[in-house]
């Protein structure tokens, strides 16, 4: 697809979803004017807007850092314009402190999948993989690594495996195993905010297992952009120095910081309800897909408020079916999310995010919506649909 066609499709998706009466996954995408109006209202409740804008990280940015450290129970936190930069800096700092440039992490983790090999290109770090299973490494796999490593990085949840999490007992055992290997532990907690319901532990207790934690403000919290690296004061001080070297010390960042503070006020208290409702949504989707061969809702019981849906059709066909459902019925199950080819030939996968717009959907609404979506899928098929099975795949 050319850049022009891609832009046209993106505009069509946005118009289709924003024209819907009901959107299950991810919600509608506001215009720039709507986003500015929303930010002014929400930020007014989160911070004193009569104060001056920030200058090189003071003011509202410093306040965001203070609140983030308080929520995570760490000594300090530093704001970064991107999570990629925050994580690169964290792993670089730990390599210098441990004297070991090897990082143990999952091959589906963000630095391996979405950062263009920045670990090696920018910092000279090297990665090793304790496991290739579609889950985080367990304690025995960490103990069994046949070479030393300075840092174990754990992505909580592991997005590209289906937003999956270990149990609390498994997580603590894995952390203990890393410490036995005299390694430090860093959490890629871009979506750590929604993990407490799964673990049954408060946010600060989860973050307290690691030596450092990165969190995102636009993922889950709905901010414009930005991230934070939290941990011991000495580490965060060093991270601020590297942030400057990496070009991350911006003159003013108040829009991003205000949106992050608003997200902490507005979305953080709601995440528990989103996680609970995601279980109902996933169950209803599985019921609606029960007769569809090779379909899968993964995990069958979501660990957070996000999960995957797998279907045995080309991604382009599923994208078109989603668009036509939105345009013709004013109801969208998958929102603006795209479908992508999965590892299994002939199968595609998409992500479902259960947030504010999904709370009005009952289980019956979800089952009806996915059943209707399949009708649009079959309408797009150039060949007869495969025979239905009698039992669902979880």
UniProtKB/TrEMBL annotation:
<keyword id="KW-0663">Pyridoxal phosphate</keyword>
<dbReference type="GO" id="GO:0008732">
    <property type="term" value="F:L-allo-threonine aldolase activity"/>
</dbReference>
<dbReference type="InterPro" id="IPR015421">
    <property type="entry name" value="PyrdxlP-dep_Trfase_major"/>
</dbReference>
<dbReference type="Pfam" id="PF01212">
    <property type="entry name" value="Beta_elim_lyase"/>
</dbReference>
<dbReference type="InterPro" id="IPR015422">
    <property type="entry name" value="PyrdxlP-dep_Trfase_small"/>
</dbReference>
<dbReference type="GO" id="GO:0005829">
    <property type="term" value="C:cytosol"/>
</dbReference>
<dbReference type="InterPro" id="IPR001597">
    <property type="entry name" value="ArAA_b-elim_lyase/Thr_aldolase"/>
</dbReference>
<protein>
    <submittedName>
        <fullName>Threonine aldolase</fullName>
    </submittedName>
</protein>
<dbReference type="InterPro" id="IPR015424">
    <property type="entry name" value="PyrdxlP-dep_Trfase"/>
</dbReference>
<dbReference type="GO" id="GO:0006567">
    <property type="term" value="P:L-threonine catabolic process"/>
</dbReference>
<feature type="domain" description="Aromatic amino acid beta-eliminating lyase/threonine aldolase">
    <location>
        <begin position="55"/>
        <end position="286"/>
    </location>
</feature>
<dbReference type="GO" id="GO:0006545">
    <property type="term" value="P:glycine biosynthetic process"/>
</dbReference>
<comment type="similarity">
    <text>Belongs to the threonine aldolase family.</text>
</comment>
């Amino acid at each position: 697809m050319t850049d022009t066609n891609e832009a046209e499709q993106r505009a069509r998706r946005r118009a289709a979803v924003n024209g819907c009466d009901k959107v299950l996954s991810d919600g509608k995408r506001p215009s720039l004017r709507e986003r500015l109006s929303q930010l002014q209202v929400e930020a007014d409740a989160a911070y004193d807007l009569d104060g001056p804008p920030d200058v090189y990280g003071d003011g509202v940015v410093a306040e965001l850092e203070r609140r983030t450290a308080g929520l995570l129970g760490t000594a300090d936190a530093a704001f970064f314009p991107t999570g990629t930069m925050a994580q690169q800096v964290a792993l670089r700092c730990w390599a210098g402190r441990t004297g070991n440039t090897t990082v143990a992490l999952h091959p589906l983790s963000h630095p391996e999948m979405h950062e263009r090999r920045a670990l090696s290109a920018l910092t000279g770090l090297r990665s090793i993989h304790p496991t290739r299973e579609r889950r985080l490494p367990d304690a025995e796999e960490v103990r069994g690594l046949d070479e030393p490593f300075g840092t174990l990085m754990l992505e909580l949840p592991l997005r590209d495996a289906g937003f999956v999490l270990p149990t609390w007992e498994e997580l603590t055992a894995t952390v203990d195993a890393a410490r036995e290997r005299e390694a430090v532990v860093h959490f890629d907690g871009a979506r750590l905010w929604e993990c407490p319901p799964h673990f049954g532990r408060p946010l600060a207790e989860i973050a307290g297992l690691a030596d450092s934690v990165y969190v995102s403000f636009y993922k889950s919290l709905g901010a414009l952009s930005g991230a934070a690296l939290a941990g011991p004061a000495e580490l965060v001080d060093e991270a601020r120095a590297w942030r400057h070297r990496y070009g991350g010390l911006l003159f003013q960042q108040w829009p991003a910081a205000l949106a992050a503070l608003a997200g902490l006020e507005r979305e953080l208290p709601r995440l528990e309800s989103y996680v609970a409702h995601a279980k109902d949504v996933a169950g209803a989707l599985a019921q609606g897909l029960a007769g569809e061969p090779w379909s899968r809702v993964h995990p069958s019981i979501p660990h957070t408020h996000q999960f995957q849906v797998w279907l045995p059709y080309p991604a382009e066909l599923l994208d078109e079916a989603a668009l036509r459902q939105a345009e013709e019925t004013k109801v969208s199950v998958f929102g603006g999310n795209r479908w992508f080819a999965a590892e299994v030939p002939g199968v595609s996968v998409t992500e479902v995010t259960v947030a504010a717009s999904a709370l009005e959907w009952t289980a019956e609404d979800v089952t009806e919506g996915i059943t209707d979506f399949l009708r649009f899928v079959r309408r797009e098929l150039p060949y007869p649909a495969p025979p239905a099975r009698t039992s669902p795949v979880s």
